[in-house]
Design brief:
Elements (H helix, E strand, L loop, with lengths): L4 H10 L11 E4 L1 H4 L1 H14 L6 E5 L8 H4 L6 H6 L13 H13 L2 H7 E4 L5 E6 L2 E5 L5 H19 L3 E9 L1 H14 L5 E4 L2 H7 L4 H12 L7
Parallel strand pairs: 2-3, 2-6, 6-7
Antiparallel strand pairs: 1-4, 4-5
Helix pairs in contact: 1-3, 6-10, 6-11
């Protein structure tokens, strides 16, 4: 029997490993190695929502936050929403992640988790959390924060994106979160010819932190884009 979308994602995550060099002060965190329960809840999530062979639209983030997918193994999903919305409880961790708040408010308006995940697959070009050592401790970092960091992970990112495409996502249009992210994804796309068209949406963290008063406008923008509807005049 052919593998389901869930089987392919789980296999990708189980084999996820970054063995390349990183510039000094940066570190990649693999949530599946750091906490065995992460693997369990990730498998449960994908079996619940992706146990089919549907073709899905692809949303690309930046790289997982250590409080969101860096704990749950599910993009833009902290433990609060994993339990409250998806019905999957994580015993070993309790996290709150700003991006997850916006994403799940948008998912609720889309039609709920089942409806959303039936249509959409989310992941990141660099699918592991990245942290940077500072005077006050380790902080979240983006793959594009440092030129040497991007150069170090670039080939791995192209390889990861190609693996995501092999899961069965629609390559005619990709949805990229974050304007700065889109500049780098565009460069990767030019080199590797992955997607026909790129649609850029504001990053959930940016909306939640700086644009809360206009949040509904951004939710509408996401849904119109993802459902391929024209925005009203």
């Amino acid at each position: 029997m052919d593998k389901t979308f869930a089987d392919k994602v789980i296999q990708f995550n189980e084999n996820l490993e970054y063995t390349g060099e990183l510039p000094e002060a940066f570190q990649a965190l693999n949530p599946y190695l750091d906490n065995p329960e992460t693997m369990t809840v990730m498998q449960e999530f994908y079996h619940k929502y992706y146990n089919d062979q549907n073709r899905r639209k692809f949303i690309i983030g930046i790289n997982p936050s250590r409080h969101g997918a860096g704990v749950t193994g599910v993009p833009f999903t902290d433990t609060k929403r994993l339990e409250a919305v998806c019905g999957i409880k994580m015993q070993s961790a309790r996290t709150h992640e700003v991006s997850s708040v916006f994403m799940y408010d948008m998912i609720a308006e889309y039609g709920g988790a089942e409806e959303f995940y039936k249509d959409i697959y989310i992941n990141s070009p660099f699918p592991l959390a990245i942290v940077r050592k500072t005077k006050t401790g380790w902080l979240n970092a983006n793959y594009y924060d440092d030129k040497k960091l991007f150069e170090a992970v670039k080939d791995f990112m192209i390889d990861s994106l190609k693996k995501h495409l092999s899961l069965g996502v629609d390559t005619s249009e990709v949805f990229v979160l974050g304007k700065k992210n889109s500049v780098f994804i565009s460069a990767l796309n030019k080199e590797a010819h992955l997607f026909d068209k790129m649609t850029v949406l504001e990053h959930p963290r940016y909306i939640q932190q700086y644009k809360t008063k206009e949040k509904q406008l951004y939710i509408d923008k996401y849904i119109l884009a993802l459902k391929n509807k024209k925005s009203p005049e």
